[in-house]
Specification:
Blueprint: H1 4-28, E1 47-48, E2 53-54, E3 62-65, E4 84-85, H2 93-96, E5 105-114, E6 123-127, E7 130-131, E8 133-138, E9 141-146, E10 163-167, E11 173-182, E12 190-191, E13 195-199, H3 200-234, H4 239-257, H5 262-266, H6 271-297, H7 304-322, H8 325-330, H9 332-356, H10 361-382, H11 393-458, H12 464-495, E14 503-506, H13 508-521, E15 528-532, E16 541-544, H14 545-561, E17 566-575, E18 578-585, H15 592-597, H16 619-629, E19 634-638, E20 644-651, H17 657-667, H18 672-678, E21 693-697, H19 701-711, E22 717-721, H20 724-730, E23 738-742, H21 750-758, E24 768-772, H22 777-785, E25 790-793, H23 798-828, H24 832-848, H25 850-868, E26 877-878, H26 879-897, E27 901-907, E28 914-915, H27 921-932, E29 939-947, E30 951-958, H28 965-970, H29 984-995, E31 1000-1004, E32 1008-1016
Parallel strand pairs: 15-17, 21-22, 21-23, 23-24, 24-25, 27-29
Antiparallel strand pairs: 1-2, 3-4, 3-5, 5-11, 6-10, 6-13, 7-12, 8-9, 8-11, 14-16, 17-18, 18-20, 19-20, 26-28, 29-30, 30-32, 31-32
Helix pairs in contact: 1-10, 3-4, 3-11, 4-6, 6-7, 6-9, 9-10, 10-11, 11-12, 12-16, 13-14, 13-22, 14-16, 18-19, 20-21, 23-29, 24-25, 25-26, 26-27
C-alpha cells in the first residue's frame, strides 16, 4: 500500500520526467532539422534565403483583402500600395473586415523572397493548415491547392488538408502568392499555422519525421487496444477493458485527424465530416477516459456527475451528427468545456483511490497526469494559441503507465491464484479438521448431558441442592450446543446466499443500548463494565436490524469471553458517508498472526491465546460476512495483553431521525389519527368502565401508533411514552395494569426499564410485555431474567398481541382483586380477643352507665357493618367512608383503655379525596395495639391528613414503643399475620400498586413511630 506522502513523491518525480523529456524533445527535434530550413519559420515574413536574414524593405507578407493577385492582368507591383502587411501565422479577421472582425471572406497573401539564382536548387513549401480553402502560386504558376477558393460561398469548396509544393526558379526572387477563401469557419480564417520553407530534402525530412511520430503513437495505441479487446473477449469480461479499448481507438482517431491530418489524406472525407470526426474523437477520448477510470477504481459506486456527464455526451454526439459545420464551430467553447472536464475530474478520482490505498491506483493517477499534460498543450494548439510541432511522448507514456497497471494487476492476480490454490489445499485439510472438531464439540456436550442426567437419576439421597446445580450445568451445556448449531445454520445460509437483508434506517445507539443490557444480564457476575459511548444524536445507518443485533452481540460476546475484568466499550464515528462502530475491550488481546486469521471460518488462534470456552470459531467469520453483505468492512487491531478493538462500517442513511419519523407517518396515514390521540393527555376519570390501563413505550412514534391502533378497539386505556425515563416518571401518575415496551431504545433499553420496574413491582403486580425483533434463546433469556412476563415478536401480529395483552391484564386484575379481597377478608376476620374485650366493656357499662353502653353498642355495630361492607372490595372509596371505620374502632378502644389512649385529629378540608379502602384503619390499629398494650403509660395517636394542593399526605403518628433499625427494615416484607389483622405489607403493596409509592415508616425505639403515605389529588 502506497502512503499519501510516497504517492506525492512519485507524482513529483513523474512530472519532472515528463518536463525533462519535453525539453529534450524541444531541443533535439523542434528546432529546424536541416540548416537549409529558414530560421524562425513560425513567423515567416520576407527572407533573404542567401543570408538567412529578414529583409528590411518590402520583406513582409502583403495581404490583399478580396483580391485574386495571381489572376490579375495588371502588374502585381502596382497593387502593393493597396495592400496591408500581415504577420503569418495570424488570423485575418481584423485585416479582412476591420469593422465586423469577421473571418468570412477571401483574399491573397504575397511574399517576395530574394535568393541567389540556382536552377539546380529545388525549394519546397509545407502548408500545414489554412482555413478553409487555399491555392499556392509560385511566380504566377499554380503549384498546389486544398479545396477550391472562390469569391463567394456558393462557388468555393472547403478543404483543409496539409500539402507540400516543390519548385525551382531561375531568377533571384521568388514571388509567393497564396489565395485563401473561408465561408464556413467563423472562428478562424487565413493562414493561422506556420509555413515551412526550405530545400526539398530538409522539408521532406521534417514532414516525414512528424508523420512518423504520429504513426508510431497510433501503432502503440492500437497495440494497447488490441490486447485489451482480446482480454475482454476471451478473458475476464471486465467493462474497464472495453472502455480502455474505446479510449485507445478514440485517441488514435484524434491523432489522425489533427496536425498532418493523415486520415483526410487516406480517405475522401469532406470538410463537414472532418469537423464532425474531429469533435467526436476528442469528446469520445474524454468520455471513455472518465468511464474507464470510474469503472476501474469505483466499480460499484453510483456517481451522479458521471451519470449526468454520460447522458450529456450522448446528446452532444447526436447533435454533432446532425448539426452543420458552422454551428459546430460556434459551439467550439462548449466542446472545449466538455472535453476538458473529465481530464480534471478523473485525476481527482484516481487520487482519492490512491489515498484509500487501492492496489496500483498510483499508475492510473500517473497516466492521468500524462493525459492532463497532453491536453493542456493540445487545446491551445487546436484553437491557434500555439504553433508547436507534434509531440507524442505524453500519450505514449500515459498509455504505457496504463498498461503497467494491467500487467501489475495480472501479476497480482497470478500471485493470488497461486495463493488461493495453496489455501484450497489447506481448506481441504480444514474441512477434515472441521468435521473432527465439530463432532468433538457436539459429542462432548451430548456426553455431558447424558452423564448429568444419569447422575440425577442415580442420586439416591435426593440432594435437592446438588440436583439443582446439576440441572443448571445441564442447561448451560444445552445452550452451548444450541449456539454451535445456530452458527452452523447461519454459515450454511451465508454460503448458499439464502440470507436476505431487510434494509431500513436504524439508530446504532439504540441497538447498542439494548445489546449491552442483554449482555450485561448474561455477564454471569464478571467484574466487567459495559459502556455505550455512541452519541444519542449519531446519524442513522442503513442496515437489517436483526443482523445488526447479531453482529454486535457476537462482537460483545466475543469480547466478554476473552476479558475477565476491566471494560468493554462501544463507540462510533462517521466519515465519508459511513459509520464506523468500534467494539473495544481490555482483555488478553492477540498477536498479529492471530489477527490476520481471526475472521476465517473455524479459526480461533493458538490455544494459549484464548480461554478454552468452546465453540468452533464461526462467530467472527459470520460477523464479517454479514458486515460485507451490508456493503461495509470489518477489521481488528490488537496486541497481546492490551485488549482488542473491532471496527466495522455501515453506510449512513440519507434521512435523519426527524425526517424518518415524518416519512413513516406519511407511509402509515391510517395510524396518524391514533398517534395524535395517543400523544394528547385527555382528562378523564381514573377508572372508566373498569378499562385496563396500559403504558406503551417505544422510541419510534410510528410503532406506538400501530400499537395503539391494534389495541384501540379492545377498550384499553393506553398512554404512550417515547423513552424509558418518561415511562418511569409515568409509573407514579396512576395505577397500571400492563407495560408494553420495545427492547431496543436509546439511553434506557427495554431490559433496563424492566429491571427498574421490578425494583418496585413484582411480576404479578405489574406485568411487562417485551416487543423484540429477535427470538433467539439468549435474547429471550435476557428478557426473562430482567423480569419480563412475556414477549411478542416484531413485526407484531395483531391477534397474537391482543391475546397476550388480554392474558397479562387479566393476570394483573386477578392479583389486584386478590389483594383487595385479602384485605377485606383479613378485616372481616375480627380478632377474638377484640370481640371479647368489646363485649366485656358493654357488659360492664350496663351496670352503671347505660347511655355509654348504648353508644358503645352503636359504635361496635357500625364497626361491624364497615368491616363486612362490600365497599371494602372496591379499588378506592371516599375519605369519609374510611374515617367512619377508623372513628368506630377508636371509640371502642377509647372506651376500653380510657385515659391510656389519646387521639388527636388534624384533617384539612378536601373537595373530594378518594383512597383505597382499609388503608388508614390498619395503620391506626397497629399504632394502638403496639402502643397501649406495650406501654403502661398508654399512647397518643395522631391522625393527620393535610392538603398539599396536588396530593394529600396522610400520617399516623404515635409515641409508642417504636422499632429498632432491624425491625424497621423488614416490617414491610414480613409475611402477613392472618391472625393479627390486615398488617402493613398488604397495605403497602396495595398503595404501591395504585400510586407507585407505598408506606413510608420512620421509627425510633421507645420514641414512637410515624407512618405516612401520599394520595394524589388528581386521581378520582
Amino acid at each position: 500500500m502506497i502512503t499519501t506522502r510516497r504517492a506525492l513523491l512519485i507524482t513529483g518525480l513523474f512530472i519532472f520526467i515528463l518536463v525533462s523529456i519535453r525539453l529534450i524533445w524541444a531541443a533535439t527535434f523542434m528546432a529546424p532539422s536541416h540548416p537549409e530550413i529558414v530560421q524562425g519559420r513560425l513567423d515567416l515574413r520576407g527572407w533573404n534565403f542567401a543570408t538567412s536574414q529578414p529583409l528590411a524593405l518590402n520583406g513582409q507578407w502583403e495581404f490583399h483583402p478580396s483580391v485574386w493577385l495571381a489572376n490579375n492582368n495588371k502588374d502585381t507591383d502596382t497593387l502593393s500600395s493597396d495592400s496591408t502587411y500581415l504577420s503569418v501565422p495570424e488570423n485575418w479577421a481584423s485585416s479582412l473586415s476591420p469593422h465586423k472582425a469577421s473571418n468570412y471572406g477571401y483574399g491573397s497573401y504575397r511574399l517576395r523572397i530574394q535568393i541567389d539564382p540556382d536552377e539546380n536548387r529545388i525549394y519546397s513549401l509545407r502548408l500545414n493548415s489554412i482555413s478553409s480553402a487555399s491555392e499556392l502560386f509560385i511566380n504566377g504558376r499554380l503549384l498546389a491547392q486544398s479545396g477550391i477558393p472562390a469569391d463567394s460561398g456558393n462557388q468555393y469548396s472547403p478543404k483543409n488538408v496539409p500539402y507540400t509544393a516543390s519548385f525551382t526558379v531561375n531568377s533571384n526572387e521568388i514571388d509567393l502568392i497564396i489565395q485563401v477563401a473561408n465561408f464556413l469557419n467563423p472562428s478562424s480564417g487565413g493562414i493561422d499555422r506556420s509555413i515551412t520553407f526550405g530545400s526539398l530534402a530538409a522539408v521532406n525530412k521534417e514532414t516525414n519525421f512528424s508523420i512518423g511520430a504520429q504513426l508510431s503513437v497510433c501503432l502503440v495505441l492500437f497495440l494497447h487496444a488490441v490486447y485489451a479487446f482480446v482480454l475482454y473477449i476471451f478473458g475476464v469480461r471486465q467493462k474497464a477493458l472495453f472502455y480502455f479499448t474505446m479510449l485507445n481507438l478514440c485517441s488514435i482517431m484524434s491523432v489522425l485527424i489533427v496536425d498532418d491530418k493523415m486520415l483526410l489524406a487516406w480517405f475522401p472525407i469532406n470538410y463537414e465530416w472532418e469537423v464532425k470526426i474531429n469533435n467526436w474523437s476528442y469528446l469520445g477520448t474524454a468520455l471513455f477516459l472518465l468511464i474507464y477510470v470510474k469503472q476501474l477504481l469505483l466499480p460499484r459506486a453510483k456517481i451522479r456527475f458521471v451519470q449526468v456527464y454520460v447522458w450529456l455526451c450522448l446528446v452532444y454526439f447526436i447533435l454533432i451528427l446532425f448539426a452543420p459545420a458552422n454551428l459546430l464551430y460556434e459551439l467550439n467553447n462548449l466542446n472545449i468545456f466538455m472535453v476538458s472536464l473529465p481530464f480534471l475530474i478523473a485525476p481527482v478520482i484516481a487520487w482519492q483511490a490512491v489515498r484509500r490505498g487501492e492496489p496500483d491506483a498510483i499508475f492510473i493517477f500517473l497516466g492521468m497526469i500524462g493525459f492532463l499534460n497532453n491536453m493542456l498543450l493540445s487545446i491551445p494548439k487546436e484553437i491557434g494559441w500555439s504553433h508547436a510541432v507534434y509531440y507524442p511522448m505524453d500519450l505514449v507514456i500515459s498509455f504505457f503507465v496504463f498498461a503497467t497497471y494491467w500487467f501489475k494487476s495480472y501479476l497480482r492476480s497470478s500471485a493470488q491464484t497461486a495463493k488461493l490454490a495453496d489455501q484450497l489445499v489447506k481448506a481441504d485439510k480444514l474441512k477434515d479438521d472441521f468435521l473432527v472438531n465439530t463432532s468433538h464439540e457436539l459429542r462432548n456436550p451430548l456426553h455431558g448431558i447424558l452423564t448429568i442426567a444419569q447422575t440425577i437419576m442415580d442420586n439416591e439421597d435426593k440432594d435437592q441442592l446438588s440436583n439443582k446445580e446439576n440441572m443448571k450445568l445441564l442447561i448451560s451445556v444445552g445452550k452451548r450446543m444450541s449456539y454451535l448449531l445456530n452458527d452452523l445454520l447461519d454459515l450454511t445460509r451465508l454460503r448458499e446466499n439464502r440470507i436476505r437483508l431487510h434494509m431500513t434506517p436504524i439508530s446504532v445507539q439504540t441497538i447498542t443500548s439494548g445489546i449491552i443490557s442483554m449482555t450485561r444480564v448474561l455477564a454471569e457476575g464478571k467484574p466487567l463494565q459495559l459502556n455505550n459511548q455512541i452519541p444519542e444524536k449519531f446519524p442513522l445507518v442503513i442496515a437489517d436490524e436483526n443482523r445488526l443485533i447479531q453482529i454486535l452481540f457476537n462482537l460483545l460476546h466475543n469480547a466478554m469471553k476473552f476479558t475477565d475484568e476491566g471494560s468493554i466499550t462501544v463507540s462510533a464515528h462517521e466519515k465519508d458517508g459511513f459509520a464506523y462502530i468500534h467494539v473495544s475491550d481490555t482483555g488478553i488481546g492477540m498477536d498479529k498472526e492471530t489477527s490476520r486469521t481471526i475472521f476465517l471460518p473455524y479459526e480461533q488462534g493458538p490455544f494459549e491465546h484464548f480461554n478454552p470456552s468452546g465453540g468452533i470459531g464461526l462467530g467472527l467469520s459470520i460477523c464479517k460476512q454479514l458486515v460485507e453483505l451490508h456493503g461495509g468492512t470489518i477489521s481488528v487491531s490488537s496486541a497481546p495483553g492490551e485488549g482488542s478493538t473491532f471496527i466495522f462500517s455501515l453506510r449512513l442513511a440519507d434521512i435523519s431521525a426527524p425526517e424518518l419519523m415524518k416519512t413513516a407517518m406519511l407511509a402509515h396515514p391510517e395510524t396518524a389519527a391514533a398517534q395524535a390521540t395517543a400523544s394528547v393527555d385527555i382528562p378523564e376519570p381514573y377508572y372508566v368502565a373498569d378499562r385496563p390501563s396500559i403504558l406503551a413505550v417505544d422510541d419510534d412514534p410510528t410503532n406506538l401508533s400501530i400499537l395503539v391502533g391494534a389495541l384501540s378497539l379492545d377498550h384499553y386505556d393506553i398512554v404512550t411514552a417515547i423513552s424509558g425515563q418518561e415511562a418511569l416518571s409515568l409509573l407514579n401518575s396512576r395505577e397500571w395494569d400492563l407495560v408494553i415496551t420495545d427492547v431496543m431504545m436509546p439511553r434506557m433499553s427495554g431490559y433496563e426499564l424492566c429491571l427498574a420496574i421490578r425494583e418496585r413491582f413484582t411480576a404479578a403486580e405489574l406485568p411487562v410485555l417485551l416487543l423484540t425483533a429477535r427470538a433467539r434463546t439468549e435474547d429471550l433469556e435476557a428478557g426473562f431474567q430482567a423480569g419480563a412476563n412475556d414477549y411478542v415478536m416484531k413485526p407484531v401480529e395483531p391477534m397474537e398481541l391482543k391475546s397476550r395483552v388480554k392474558a397479562l391484564t387479566a393476570l394483573r386484575k386477578s392479583v389486584s382483586d386478590k389483594m383487595r379481597m385479602e384485605a377485606a377478608w383479613l378485616q372481616a376476620q375480627i380478632k377474638p380477643h377484640f370481640l371479647f374485650n368489646t363485649l366485656n366493656s358493654v357488659a360492664s357499662l350496663s351496670d352503671f352507665d347505660t347511655a355509654r353502653m348504648r353508644k358503645l353498642i352503636e359504635a361496635f355495630s357500625q364497626y361491624l357493618r364497615a368491616s363486612f361492607a362490600n365497599r371494602n372490595l372496591e379499588r378506592i372509596v371516599p375519605l369519609e367512608v374510611e374515617l367512619e371505620l377508623v372513628r368506630s374502632y377508636l371509640y371502642i378502644e377509647k372506651e376500653r383503655f380510657e385515659e391510656r389512649l389519646q387521639v388527636i385529629w388534624e384533617i384539612d378540608k378536601f373537595d373530594s379525596l378518594m383512597l383505597p379502602p382499609l388503608s388508614i384503619q390498619p395503620l391506626v390499629e397497629n399504632a394502638v395495639r403496639h402502643g397501649v398494650l406495650r406501654q403502661v403509660s398508654g399512647v397518643e395517636v395522631q391522625i393527620r391528613i393535610t392538603n398539599h394542593v396536588q396530593f394529600a399526605m396522610i400520617s399516623i403518628i404515635d409515641n409508642g414503643a417504636g422499632m429498632n433499625t432491624e425491625t424497621l427494615q423488614r416490617v414491610l416484607e414480613q409475611p402477613k399475620d392472618t391472625k393479627g389483622g390486615i398488617g402493613l405489607p398488604n397495605t403497602h403493596r396495595r398503595l404501591k400498586q395504585l400510586y407507585g409509592e407505598g408506606l413510608t415508616i420512620s421509627s425510633e425505639l421507645y420514641k414512637g413511630t410515624t407512618v405516612t403515605f401520599i394520595v394524589p389529588l388528581s386521581h378520582k
